[in-house]
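Supplementary notes for students who missed Thursday's class. We covered one full example, reproduced here. Read the sequence, then the structure, then the short commentary at the end.
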Amino acid sequence: MSVAPKICFLVDDDQDDQEIFTMALEELDLPVKCVIANDCSEAISKLSKDRTFNPDYIFLDINMPKMNGKECLKEIKKHAHLKHIPVIMYSTSLKPSDVSETRKLGAVGFITKPNKVSELAVVLNSFFGPSKASVFQG
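Structure (token representation):
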């Protein structure tokens, strides 16, 4: 019996970071499908208009043009049908204030973007692997 894949929604405007993220997921060899939005407007539109799209996790970059990740997180949490979805911030930021602010806004984790695919795979395994956990780095 095959297991339905977990759906991961990555919201990040940087194509290199998108590629590193998807490569890290592939390293896990777990049933995970990644859907990508290039900015917060695209993400909010997909999440609010397509009621059949219910990702298991949302990974959200902080530093993006137009609407940043914190604003996007606030918007996601306004929608009743999205409130239950765990949002993990995925950023280059090392600022403790970003970690604490996003936690207060409802993020369940904060990952500082690593330079190596293998390092990110280890962190992502904590979400998608057998022992799921909340991850706050920083």
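Commentary. The radius of gyration is 14 Å. The chain has a mean pLDDT of 88. If anything here is unclear, bring it to office hours.
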